[in-house]
Specification:
Strand order of the largest sheet: 2-1-8
Number of strands: 8
CATH class of the largest domain: Alpha Beta
Helix content: 25-40%
Shape: elongated
Structural class: alpha+beta
Bound molecules: zinc ion
Distance between the termini: 34 Å
CATH topology of the largest domain: hypothetical protein PF0899 fold
CATH architecture of the largest domain: 2-Layer Sandwich
Length: 144
């Protein structure tokens, strides 16, 4: 449930910008969030709505865009994406479901991806997350 604390941070950052700019309203706010965050968008939207009540952000339109995760190996320079990560995990870490299906553990604990992953090309653990982490406000349309 990190959605509520994220929403709080977003509202706080936006309120500051609006004060600095002397804005009355923010008609539109565009948020970019990383694929690795595995956000529940519905919860985030709801939290933003609730937390903006009674603030200048009440009634602002929030839009969301997902940023795909990608990784780059520091040893060999190979790049890969989050889709492949699921296939690269050791077999015994997968979670069995009652209906016989399997669920990647990353679905439950995104941080696992970084802890368990190795470069699919050379096997190195020395890699960087190029994109797909975190959340940022990409665009705000202010009304002064
Ligand atoms: Zn590599």
């Amino acid at each position: 449930m990190h959605e509520w604390s994220l929403a709080e941070a977003v509202i706080e950052a936006l309120t500051q910008v609006m004060e600095q700019e002397g804005a009355r309203r923010a008609s539109e706010v565009e948020i970019i969030y990383g694929e690795m965050m595995e956000l529940e968008l519905d919860i985030l939207k709801f939290a933003l709505e609730e937390l903006s009540k009674g603030t200048p952000l009440e009634g602002s339109k929030f839009t969301f865009n997902e940023e795909r995760a990608s990784f780059r190996c520091n040893s060999c320079g190979h790049r890969w994406d989050f889709r492949q990560v699921h296939e690269l995990l050791p077999e015994d870490l997968w979670v069995s479901e009652p209906d016989g299906g399997r669920e990647s553990p990353i679905h439950f604990i995104p941080d696992l991806a970084q802890a368990l992953m190795v470069c699919p090309n050379c096997g190195s653990r020395d890699f960087e997350v190029e994109s797909g982490k975190g959340l940022r406000i990409n665009k705000v349309i202010l009304e002064v």
